[in-house]
Amino acid sequence: MKNIDIVKKGDWIFTCVMTPLQFSHFETRNPNDYDQEYLNSLDSEAYSNFLNDSFETTDGSSHSFKNCGCKVISEAYAKWFIQNNIHLMFDKYENYDNKWDLYTYDVRQASMAAGLPFEGL
Q1: Which range of residues forms the domain containing residue 112?
Q2: Whether residue 64 sits in one domain with residue 23
Q3: Over 50: is that where the pLDDT of 35 sits?
Q4: 22 and 68 share a domain?
Q5: For 75, which of 9, 24, 33, 35 could close a Cys bridge (C-beta 3.0–4.6 Å)?
């Protein structure tokens, strides 16, 4: 588990089935598992991003940043998000059709009330 004291700029907050403290380390993708024509079309920066945009979770599964709503956030926002268990707020909207809208609105309002710009989910 990651300690709140070492959350830093560039850490990831997850808006999928993962929670912010649920990953163990970043992993490198294996290019042999992907379409070579697609890989050849990437410039060097895009290729580097492709190789480094997944992580292995504590349960051993793999997760791709590009396949969910993951974002890079500031240190202050990361600390606020985790210390206030913002990722757990989503559960209270379970029975609503517009749960993402409600969750986003409440997180935006809470971050602004804390004096932080809303950086997403």
Answers
A1: 74-116
A2: yes
A3: yes
A4: yes
A5: 9
Using DSSP's 3-state secondary structure scheme, residue 37 falls into helix
User: Do 62 and 103 fall within a single domain?
Assistant: no
Q: Classify residue 24 by its DSSP letter.
A: E
Beta bridge partners of 93: none
Is residue 60 within 8 A of residue 32, CB to CB? The reply is no
Q: What is the value of pTM for the model shown?
A: 0.45
Which residues, 6+ apart, have CB-to-CB distance to 79 below 8 Å?
Answer: 4, 7
Q: Please report the DSSP string for 38-103 in residue order.
A: HHHTS-HHHHHHHHTSEEEETTS-EEEGGGTT-EE--HHHHHHHHHTTGGGGGGGGTT-TTHHHHH
